[in-house]
Amino acid sequence: MMKKIPPHIDDQLLDYLDGALSEQEKEKIEFMIRNDQALANRLEELRSIDRSMQQLTLEHPSKNFTQVVMHKLDQYPLRSGLTTRNGIILLAGVLVTTIIATLLISAGVFDGKSTTIDLNQIELTGKYISRPLPSIPFNGKMILNVIIMLNLALGFLVLDRAILKPYFQRRMQAGH
Fold first, then answer.
1. Which residue, 103, 98, 69, 100, is CA-closest to 158?
2. Residue 110 contacts residue 140 (beta carbons within 8 Å)
3. Does the pLDDT at position 19 exceed 70?
4. What is the spatial distance between Cα 45 and Cα 5, in angstroms, rounded to a whole number?
5. How far is CA 10 from CA 45, 103, 172, in A?
6. Is 168 part of a structural domain of the chain?
7. Distance from first CA to last CA of the chain, Å, rounded?
8. Is 63 among the domain residues?
9. Which of 23, 117, 158, 168 has its CB surrounded by the most CB atoms within 10 Å?
10. pTM of the full predicted structure?
11. Which of 12-16, 77-81, 100-104, 143-147 has the lowest mean pLDDT?
């Protein structure tokens, strides 16, 4: 198995190939190469890579490349990630979820559902935390109200992005 060459030595070998070392550093590297076969092998690898890189030719784009690219930018309309069909399905799902949550709240399903979450029952309290942690009151009705509000916000966002924006863009393009 080949010995791993440290990165700073690898950098010195590259500088040696480029002729960027002082005379003293060059002598030091040459001494190390004579006494270490792994370094000599690595130098040959780097020399081979350097020769290969010098033989490559850099390809240049055509003179009108920039104009062609800039001209084609507006050729294809920017599509939203949400199609109208998928937007309507997502909007229907949001609406159904909001209606179900509202019906559950109005029926009083969560009226008596409140509890506290005691964080001191978690194993981390004794090991990593020395002070007692607070208990968090948990009210099902409040959580459901928050979910309804988030669903309504999501619904308005989907309505705007997937339905209203494409509709008005089509009207503007048609000249109405």
1. 98
2. yes
3. yes
4. 12
5. 11, 70, 62
6. yes
7. 75
8. no
9. 158
10. 0.41
11. 77-81
Beta carbons within 8 Å of 16's beta carbon, 6+ residues apart? 26, 29, 43
Both structure tokens of 18: 């480029």
Give the structural domain span for 117: 84-174
Helix (H, G, I), strand (E, B), or coil: what is residue 138?
strand
Structural domains of the chain, count = 2
Name the one residue in this structure whose structure tokens are 């503007």.
172
> Tell me: the pLDDT tens digits for 69-113?
888 887 776 665 667 788 888 889 988 988 888 888 888 777 776
Given this model, what pLDDT does residue 24 score? 93
2: nearest Cα among 49, 47, 38, 53: 38
- Write out the E strands in the chain: 114-118, 135-139
Distances (CA, A) of 82 to 51, 100, 157, 162: 51, 25, 12, 6
Three-state secondary-structure class, residue 122: coil
Q: Are 47 and 96 within one domain? A: no
Q: Which two tokens stand for residue 79?
A: 């599509």
Q: Indicate if 88 and 169 belong to the same structural domain.
A: yes
